[in-house]
User: Fold these one by one.
Assistant:
Number 1:
Amino acid sequence: MKAIAIVGSPRKKGNTEILARHTLKAIEEEGLDTELISLADLDIKPCTACMVCKKEESCPIDDDFWPIYVKMKQADAIILASPVHFGSATPSIKALMDRTGYIAYWNGRVFERKVGGPLVVARRAGQNFTLAQLAYWFYIMGCFVAGSTYWNMAFGDKKGEVEQDEEGLKTAWNFGKNVAFLVKKLKA
């Protein structure tokens, strides 16, 4: 059983990655394998709506996308994590959501009944919209979305500040525990 967290922040080892690693640690404690994928140095181009994926499970865009798609297909749980940029998810995570969504939708709904959910980090505002934006992807993919003790978000501006948000860390930790619980129940 494996859970992956995909971090859409352009900042390596920033607050979003810290929060995602914290969540993955909670999942690891429950016996699942985990992997963090950072989009920071990867080239994920936006979907061009060419509809090649409607005919076959592929994407003609030449970038770093396909290996991530394969890892998402193989995972039992998927976490999408993004900082808030101008009140929204980052372009890289949004591009990944659009392209994986199209391919999965037209090719057997390959993410259906996987477990997952969003993680969001905000400096001050925009977190609710970004959380919903990420969550909608899971809903349309037919995933089981794990809840927590509050919405899956934390606050922080400068690198490492998210570690001072005790409630945010607790929420992310409980989210990780719930992800692991659901995966194990579904695999039993």
Note: The chain has one domain: 2-187.
Number 2:
Amino acid sequence: MRALRELLPQPLLAPIKLGFGKGVLVVAAFDYEDTSIGPYREVGIGFQCRLRRSGPLPIVPLFAERFFDDVGTWVHFLPVTTQQAHDAGREHWGFPKIVGDIRIDRSADSITCEVSQNGEKLLHFSADRPGRSKAMGVPMRFYSQKEDEVLFTELHIDAVGATTRIGARARLDIADSVYTRDLDREALAKSKPLEVRWFDEYRTMLDRPSIRYRASA
């Protein structure tokens, strides 16, 4: 929690507590095959938080995100594979995007992803399929900052996939790079996966931010 608090730029947001001084890091890989700006890949690193004024209730908001509508991921690092995706994300959401190389290898039972830039490895992660896929719908919410505003964006994903918290298997390795050295790599090496979400296919619409907060609030 100490490391996460240091990465939040504004007191408006607070990381969700798991207890025992721990918070929640999120790692996600997306392979967008058909979008209004063409196909591209994206990998996000962030952590789960909510508005500080909502109170310090631990754990529950994380597992009941449908009912706690301010639960979202603060986007900390967001590499993409095209310049157009980079420019749109920075212009409309202030996302901390860079353009890099993203390799995603998927089998029927597992997925691996590696992010690099100019031949330098930035991160690598892998996950096992959490179970049999079925139709599902889940919310996706995230926070970002653009100039003097904290932006909250909410969208809905219609997907075919699976999710699990019991027996989730995943691994994350982060290199010491200019983009990731502010993350507590020692703590992450000791951490264990809390949940894995796997989408075989998904559809969504990314609209403009839903709510804008003054960053000094």
Note: The first strand starts at residue 13 and ends at 15.
